[in-house]
Amino acid sequence: MTTKVENLIIGGGVIGVCVAYFLAQAGRSVTLLKRDGIASGSSYGNAGLIASGHAIPMPAPGVLTQGLRWLLDSASPFYIKPRPDPDLIRWLWRFRGACTEEQVLRTIPILLTLDRASLDLYDAIHARHPLDDAYRRKGRLFLYRTQSGLDHAVGDLELLRRFGVAGEVLDAKAVQDRFPPATSSVIGGVYYERYAHFSPARFVNELVRVVKSQGADIRTHTEVLDFETAGKRISTVRTTRGDFEAGEIVLAAGVWSAPLGKMLGLRLPIQPGKGYSITAKRPPGYPELPVQLSDAKVALTPMGDALRFSSTLEMAGFDMRVNQRRIDASRRAMRDYVQGAAGLEELELWRGFRPMSPDDLPFIGRSPAYSNLILATGHSSTGMTQGPVTGKLVAQIITGEEPDLDLTPFSPARFS
């Protein structure tokens, strides 16, 4: 059976659902496919942070050198598992090319523009719709236990101030006043105001409820198996629940966009960056303030009646095995930075894949290979932050409106 639709979205995480939302807002018919449940990948277990301040890209001078030093330490914050993978080698070469001061200075204002627009859209969405997702705007506090780490953070703030970012440097006493659970080993911190936080999976599922009420067709447990093409168009999308013919197709499948793209002859430079999170029961009276355990690179986010500790990056391919050394390192960081962390009641251990691009910028725009294919993927670790603005930009592409932002930095062809 073949189903004909106007706009077909592949992917049911925050990006795909935000595309569906803005298309529905524009009065367009929407069908969304998700191979399992809504928000079952990175949109489920991430840190739940919406950032528009600390916009320093991951590729920066010295980062790759540090990564190589950490290469054989599977407990390090940035672990690259050695393996003879040509796609990883190409990705690392492009990542290396982005690790320059010149590229960092070009990327910061692009990220700030993208992130600020998205935070404004989050505010607008929550003002328009009553979403039960624990959305709060309380800023974010970066904590430090070493002087070298704090000095580096102050240097980052001085750089960001050149681009209009406001931040506040705190000494140990000011940290205690702002965040009483901090241990006495925390010597200082940096506070950024333009952060929001929420329960990410609840947001995505709440937005699905909204788009369904606007007529969108949401089809879960529908896996894309293959594509048929005719010239420069995708004629048919084959799935486990029938075939689809669509006027416009949006590929927003996160890390799975790369293997799906290969079916179309596309080579998207996206690598899976595995992250972990531990969700615990939130103690009574715990402050409504996200903090970063910065020397250990672990994020701590309050989410309603829960707390989530999220660790950083493991480049190990599509390997879903739990690296217990990384989990143990996160628990140690929790105890080092936060009073009472050892007694928290843990509710869930999660791991999942972030869609890492080499330059820390997403791919947003029409595919140069197929006229009816639009890419919205590769958001690295900022998919939750950039979900609404990506959704709006894709909707503007489809409806023929002038995009709110210059799409050149996000071109799907920039690494061709």
How many distinct helices? Answer: 11
Average pLDDT works out at 95
> Level of helix content?
25-40%
Beta fraction: 25-35%
What is the CATH-assigned architecture? 3-Layer(bba) Sandwich
| Rg, Å, rounded | 21 Å
Distance between the termini: 36 Å
Largest sheet: 8 strands, mixed
| CATH class placement | Alpha Beta
CATH superfamily: FAD/NAD(P)-binding domain
CATH topology value: FAD/NAD(P)-binding domain
What structural keywords apply?
416 residues; alpha/beta; FAD/NAD(P)-binding domain; eight-stranded mixed beta sheet; globular
Description of the molecule:
The chain is an alpha/beta fold. The protein has a single domain, classed as 3-Layer(bba) Sandwich (FAD/NAD(P)-binding domain). It is 33% helix and 27% strand. It is built from 11 helices and 20 strands. The strands form 4 sheets. Strands 1, 2, 9, 10, 11, 12, 19 and 20 form an 8-stranded mixed β-sheet that branches. An 8-stranded mixed β-sheet has the order 6-7-5-14-15-16-13-18, with helices on both faces. Helix 1 packs parallel to helix 11 and helix 5 crosses helix 11. The model has no long low-confidence stretch (mean pLDDT 95).
